[in-house]
Design a protein that fits this description.
Shape: globular
Largest sheet: 2 strands, antiparallel
Structural class: mainly alpha
Strand content: under 5%
Strand order of the largest sheet: 1-2
Number of strands: 2
CATH superfamily of the largest domain: MetI-like
Helix content: over 70%
Order of helices and strands: HHHHEEHHHHHHHHH
Number of helices: 13
Number of domains: 2
Radius of gyration: 24 Å
CATH architecture of the largest domain: Orthogonal Bundle
CATH class of the largest domain: Mainly Alpha
Length: about 325
């Protein structure tokens, strides 16, 4: 296991290194730079000032030289300053990361609590009215665009009923934990509805496939009860492909909840990455994208470790 984890850590480091170069290169090829934005914001800046500022910030050098300088500073723990927020990158990143962890944690938790049992029930009664009803609801959740669903929830709960805030995060000291949780209800509901249908469908398909296996028929022939067959023999094996989907969803939601965060003005990682790219805040965008890549790699590693726990035949020794 230690050897396997060491190899995975090395592979992850290589992936992060390659991704850092690719992301830095793509951002360096974007039209304009922070100095151009400064010139457009202050017409008093002359062309001589622009040249001096580019020399000062190292923007007159080639992409390879600039990337080498950034990598050397990053290895020493200096990730630079955010131009948009006038703060060190990590000081801007950590609050957004905390907000995203809370949002994604609730969303994935509720999605799994609803989707996995629903998919299991549908698989146990295939092609019945209950199965068709669960599939219809799942397809409805998958088909609804996140921004449209978010706007509908705002209109219903914030505008019409007036029982929930339309956006923001709230202050913990202003009204206690419940007040802050109220700001999470609508974005969590949006992400949960958008993802629960997929989890339901994957769980149903995996369970149906598992229940057709020979060892399930053997267990039935030996007189095993229905509950033991489902929970002991079938469920663990059916969870293997579902765990893969959950790991991929976690990485996607961590950086891809941009639409939901934008509609609800929620300061999370998705919105931060978008704002930093649009504002040519290279340092912030690069570190945020690398962090999202790292979270995806960690999710895949946890999924691989879960395989060995679900199926004893899988070993990483």
């Amino acid at each position: 296991m230690i050897s396997y984890l060491s190899h995975r850590a090395l592979h992850s480091l290589i992936v992060l290194s390659v991704m850092s170069f690719v992301i830095y290169g793509l951002m360096g090829l974007m039209p304009g730079d922070p100095i151009d934005l400064m010139i457009s914001a202050d017409p008093k800046l002359t062309s001589e000032d622009a040249v001096r500022l580019r020399e000062l910030y190292g923007l007159d050098k080639s992409i390879l030289e600039r990337y080498g300088n950034w990598l050397e500073a990053a290895v020493s723990g200096d990730f630079g300053y955010s131009r948009l927020f006038a703060k060190p990158v990590l000081d801007v990143l950590f609050p957004a990361l905390a907000n995203t962890v809370v949002l994604i944690g609730f969303a994935i938790g509720f999605s799994l609590l609803i989707g996995l049992p629903a998919g299991l029930i549908a698989a146990l009664k295939p092609y019945s009215k209950l199965d068709y009803s669960i599939n219809l609801i799942a397809f409805g959740g998958i088909s609804m665009p996140a921004f449209w669903l978010a706007l509908l929830l705002i209109i219903l709960f914030a505008v019409t009923l007036g029982i929930l805030p339309a956006g923001g995060t709230g202050e913990l000291a202003a009204g206690g934990a419940w007040t802050k949780l109220q700001f999470l209800v609508l974005p969590v509901m949006t992400l949960t509805i958008a993802s629960v249908g997929g989890h339901t469908r994957y769980m149903r398909a995996a369970m149906l496939e598992t229940l057709r296996q020979d060892y399930i028929r053997t267990a039935k022939a030996k007189g095993a009860g229905s509950g033991r067959i489902v929970l002991v023999h079938a469920l663990r094996n059916a969870m293997i492909p579902v765990v893969t989907i959950i790991a991929l969803d976690f990485g996607f939601l961590f950086s891809g909840a941009l639409v939901t965060e934008t509609v609800f003005a929620y300061p999370g990682m998705g919105k931060l990455i978008f704002d930093s790219i649009m504002g040519n805040d290279f340092n912030l965008a690069l570190v945020a994208l690398l962090l999202a890549t790292g979270v995806t790699l960690i999710g895949n590693l946890l999924a691989d470790l879960a395989y060995a726990w679900l199926d004893p035949r899988i070993s990483y020794e």
